[in-house]
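An example makes the point: we let one protein speak, the chain in one-letter code, the fold tokenised, and here it is:
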Amino acid sequence: MLQDILLTAAAAAGGAANNAEALNQMGFSHLIKAMVADPVEFLVSWAVFLMLVTMSFGSWWYTIVNAIKNTVISKRADTVVRTFWETPNAQDAIRFMEEQPANEPFSKIALDCAQAAAHHQRHEGSRLVDALNRSEFIDRALRQAVTRESARLENGMTWLATVGATAPFVGLLGTVWGIYGALIRIGATGQASIDAVAGPVGEALIMTALGLFVAIPAVLAYNAFNRSNRNTYAKFDTFAHDLHDFFATGSRVGDTSGKR
């Protein structure tokens, strides 16, 4: 009786040790070894892995670049707009806008509007003036400028949205393929113990985790930039309307002095 109990305990301890060893195989290093061992799984798994790495790199790149760009634009927007309107002389205000960096959008909108007004004034009496009055010509220039600067703010947003929507499914592809390979190996060996299942299943689940790791930051970044861009678009619209009033009539709405 005592001998049977000892044998049973030894078998249980051995089984626990095997289970613990099998669970230790559910790691990234074992995933690499398994992909190298099977040529087909190697190609599919590495293709999925490299795709996720590329998605992640692109997402973080656009996240950092857009974060810096949006922060700079947001900090400078009020100063640029306020200085433009507070400058008494229109030529000095335009000169101030010309001194702004190339990536500052509000100054570029103002300069396009000023150039359109000057161009229309130089061609008074021509067919251009007959076809479009001053207000319409300036309005068209403003719409084009706002559209251009808005499109620049959208840089990288398509990539972030695509990664956020597809990265989980790319990871799931690696998971499904890994589980399929695991089932094929289990069927070929006839072993369904935990030491035969833990490793392949763990390898497959790593791909799902990688897909989520890539997708979640991309979704958060997309939502943050989308909100920031909407605020900037509203400022574009307000500034463009004020510019139109200024260059079309010579004064802002509510200004009865008529001074530029």
